[in-house]
Amino acid sequence: MCALLLCVNGHASELRLTGYQRSDGAITTYYGGDTIDPYFASKALLSASDIGLDARAAARRWIRWLLPRQLKSGQFERYCLVRGRFVGCRQADADDALLATWMELLVRFSPPEGMPPAWKRSFDMSSRYLDGLRDKRLGVFNVASDLPVALMMDNAEISSAFKAVARYAQATHDKEAAEQWTLKAQQLDRDILQVFWQPGRGFAVSTQARDKTEFYPDTVAQIFPILSGIVPDNERASARYHAWMKQHRFVWLQMPETDYPWGLVALVADKMGDADAITCWRVRATQFRHGTHWNVLEEALYQAFESRLTPEQAVAPVPGGLRCR
């Protein structure tokens, strides 16, 4: 049976980023915004697709917009609205995560008949530049060429991208490429655990020392690798997830009142089959939609979770007995 909004004539409902995606395909970071961060736009499209929304139309329009703006180096910029046009105005916040997310976007939304030549050129440029960010001693990837610091969550996203590329190569019957990308992902997973995992203390978020602990990135980082299938030896993802929720659930659900809702945690909850946590996040986050602390990633996740509601759930969105505070 198709849930409300999720299926129309047997097809998944479509992601519609009204207020974020412009008529030319550009996707702003905030509702009706005047800035574009390609990482957030690409991550939003991938996340909505992960949860079950059909993001193909939005993704292909976004790719058409961003593709000609890739620099000759393979990098991307952030963009600002100037006299009605978006122009490059700032360096990317993190080249490593952005390029990995872009590479995953290209393989995940490639047309059935194969990756267009322009997409393939862009993919190859991105891959080459990303390779240059790899720390040859540690094996993990640095944030940027001028910032030799490696972040755990960025590297987890790179791992996800490598695995997505391997699946794409397998699907397109390129066995050699599939094996190569699989090996790259497996080696990176080992390096991530070697560099960032601290038995008894959890994941370090950076190779650079930190003098404080915050919900993001420090607390979120403890379950974020689950999305990439990275779990320390002698641990189970489910046990790690449920221990995290027992300790941090209510703090997370209160986050929208003072900070971003951190829907990425709900994405982990979805992977772990925790429908109650997703319901609570959606209900608690609703009143903050399109506000100061709401970006296109939160919007895509919200739409995807909302699309699963049955008519009964839409009327009474919180099941009796479920505590969301």
Explain what this protein looks like in three dimensions:
The chain has 325 residues and is mainly α. The chain has one domain: Glycosyltransferase. The chain has twelve helices and nine strands. It has helices at residues 38-51, 56-66, 95-108, 117-131, 152-171, 175-196, 215-219, 237-254, 263-271, 275-285, 296-306, 311-315; strands at 7-8, 11-12, 35-36, 77-82, 85-91, 142-144, 147-150, 197-198, 202-203. Strands 3-4-5 form a three-stranded antiparallel beta sheet. Strands 1-2 form a two-stranded antiparallel ribbon. The protein has a two-stranded antiparallel sheet with strand order 6-7. Helix 1 packs antiparallel against helix 2, helix 3 packs parallel to helix 5 and helix 5 runs antiparallel to helix 6. The longest helix is centred in the middle third of the chain and has 22 residues, at 175-196. It is globular, with a radius of gyration of 19 Å. The model is unreliable at 1-10 (pLDDT under 50).
